[in-house]
Amino acid sequence: MEILNTDVTQRKLLRLDRQRRPVVLRLILFMVAFCVLIVGLQGWNLWQSRNADIDETTVSTTNMARALAAQAESAFKVGDAVLDETVERAEHDGSTGAAGERLHFRLAEIVRGTPGVHGVLVFGPKGDWRIIWMPPNVEFSAANNADREYFRWHASHTDRATRIGKPMISRSTGRFVIPLTRRIDNPDGSFGGVALVILDLEFFGKFYDSFEIGRTGTILLAGDDGTLFYRRPFKPDQIGSSVFNGPVLTLSRALGIAGTRMMRSNLDGVTRLYSYRHLEGFPLVVASALSRDEILADWRRQTAITGVVGVLAVLLLAWAGFRMVRQIRVRDQLERQLRAAGESLQRHNTSLQSLADSDGLTGLANRRLFETSLTREYERARRSGTPFSVILVDVDHFKKFNDRYGHVAGDDCLRRVAAAVGAGPRRPPDLAARYGGEEFAIILPDTDLAGAIAVAEKIRLGVAGLDIEHADSASGHVSASLGVYSGRPIDAACNDPMAWIEAADGQLYAAKAAGRDRIMAQAGAGA
């Protein structure tokens, strides 16, 4: 009987063991699969974090390259403008005697307050110095420049365009400079000399040093032919060398005007994330680059920490047998991360929307937002039967202002005028926008003609009160002309908000025809 009982017990145990083995195996496989899943998610998150760091740095280096290009374009455009006037005066009035004296004083007047311009010189056909302007704090000694490469080039070429020469050491000051030159012709078309504007390389260096690029980052300015004009960190022996086969020029030939890519430098062997941009109108390229090791340093530290934590978590999960508490904590952690990511995305989208609706130069609403608001407020006024007014503002003789004072001063003028325009309308539904170029537009819902004229007069006086010098204006300062149109959309024959713009534009032209610096207004339907 005891043997029988033992056999029965053994059969039961075997049957239970056969039932248990698949469950245990499934549990082991499930735990292994879950651990692999955890490791995979961790790896994916770390990889996404790495890409996010690189993307963020890409935005930073792209913006840096854009700022570098803007500064370089401004400097070279100023030099080109100085050459324009210098050559014109030298060819028309001459460069010796009283005419030379007048030209000298004119150059001093133009360049004295211009950063980056180290000097302006005019050479005769034999390389003799005829007109020299250097900053008062710069010591120099006159010399003959007939042997300079740029002088020989202009003497043998009839090309009238501005030529950017290779960086060189100035004989007068011993400093690295960039020569901008242009040929001067005699009345009979023969070679009459060379006009030279000297850009101080240190001017670019100081600007480049203001950027944070880490220990092994770099910033450079180079010609399309590969000539290196400047590189940070600065090494004098590299100036003038060729970087034609380097990462920046190689990248520019592959991608065009601007681009970003991770590449290895052929100068120091460091792998960097390069962002470059070509200068508009000049055969030059600027680039900023941050070291890959420095970009990913924090990520690598985080990866090491996360890796250790992940291993410990996997071991803990294996030892604890997949406890429910651990599942809840992991779930909660993921939910918090997703919530934080959602909030961050919402903030980012809000910021992008604000940028999309603003004019980059003046900070006012841009034309897209203006036209959207125009249609919305017009329809609201038509439904409610309330008055609706539009004002168009145009800066008087702005093209002449740009031609005389330059685009940098023109941009500053527009920003200041925009501030005066924006100070005119005061109510929440009112909207001031940059409509295009030097033209601004204001929407005034629930405002009759008298109220719109009052706002327009406030803007006109505000612009005049800026007292911005304008030698080509009859008043001697920057002024604005304004056109006002007001009416009730509900009584309009044509249900088209653009008709309000066209009517205000007609009044604007009438104001200009009447002498500028004034307001012309018209009452429309139902006013």
How would you characterize the overall build of this protein?
This protein is an alpha+beta fold and 527 residues long. The protein contains 13 helices and 16 strands. The model has no long low-confidence stretch (mean pLDDT 84). It has helices spanning 2-93, 97-111, 149-156, 201-209, 247-255, 292-295, 297-320, 324-356, 367-384, 398-405, 407-422, 449-465, 497-513, and strands spanning 117-123, 129-133, 163-164, 168-169, 176-185, 191-200, 218-223, 228-232, 258-264, 271-278, 284-291, 388-395, 431-436, 439-445, 480-487, 519-523. Strands 1, 2, 3, 4, 5 and 6 form a six-stranded antiparallel β-sheet that branches. It has a five-stranded antiparallel β-sheet with strand order 8-7-11-10-9. 32% of the residues are buried. Helix 1 packs antiparallel against helix 2 (97-111), helix 1 runs antiparallel to helix 7 (297-320) and helix 10 (398-405) packs across helix 11 (407-422).
Helices and strands, with pairings:
Blueprint: H1 2-93, H2 97-111, E1 117-123, E2 129-133, H3 149-156, E3 163-164, E4 168-169, E5 176-185, E6 191-200, H4 201-209, E7 218-223, E8 228-232, H5 247-255, E9 258-264, E10 271-278, E11 284-291, H6 292-295, H7 297-320, H8 324-356, H9 367-384, E12 388-395, H10 398-405, H11 407-422, E13 431-436, E14 439-445, H12 449-465, E15 480-487, H13 497-513, E16 519-523
Parallel strand pairs: 15-16
Antiparallel strand pairs: 1-2, 1-6, 3-5, 4-5, 5-6, 7-8, 7-11, 9-10, 10-11, 12-14, 12-15, 13-14
